[in-house]
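User: Good morning. I'm curious how zinc ion would be positioned relative to this chain. Could you predict the structure with it bound?
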Amino acid sequence: MTAIIATSTIVHATPASYYSKVKSRYDYDEIASQLSKSNINFFVGGGEKYFNDRRDKRNLMNEMDDYLFANSLENFIKINSNKIGFLTDYDEPIGKHEGRKPSLEDIVQATVQKLSSFNKPFFLLVEGSQIDWGGHDNDSEHMISEMLEFDRTVGKVFNFAYKDKNTTVVITADHETGGLSIIDGNLKDSKVVNKYVSGSHTATMVPIFSFGPYSSLFNGIYDNTEIFDKLEAIIIK
Ligand SMILES: [Zn+2]
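Assistant: Good morning! Here's the predicted structure, ligand included:
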């Protein structure tokens, strides 16, 4: 069983890399067509326009007749199907600091419940997509609110993994964005003072945290392309 969840559009670079192969990450219409044929069981993210308001006038949501489409989290939870799409926005979802709903932790909790109900192995990808966007804009309010939501989401995943005892959890970033330094702060008020040195991606090393069976595969320092091989090794085992 498979599921992909993002707080960007579902055709954005990170989610797309798990189910599509294209020359450019910006071939969004083509990426959506490949998603429509990918057999992913559950997908949640923005970008409805790449499915039903396309340049080629195809309506992928009509073509995907083995899927049911949810229009709210309540609806997503209620639908009893092994193939569900939940397109959370016509285009890019708004930022957490602007009031994005439903919350990533609630979406992920509902999806883990669905995936585990089939009593089969499952793979779930969750991207906290907009942490990067806060970094690009040097916007600490955006970045911190996205990071806190992602942290709560990791908590929900751990609640499952601790009990299940047979789930590997891997948490990482594809890169740092903004060259963020914390130069001052105040523990009492829970405030930090940030400084950025870039509006783009940086070469700062990023952590990789892992939990559960095979978590020791993720020790040490290595190129991020190795994460693909490590994840594949776990799935093949
Ligand atoms: Zn970026």
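The chain has a mean pLDDT of 97. The chain has one domain: 2-173+208-236.
Let me know if you'd like a different ligand tried.
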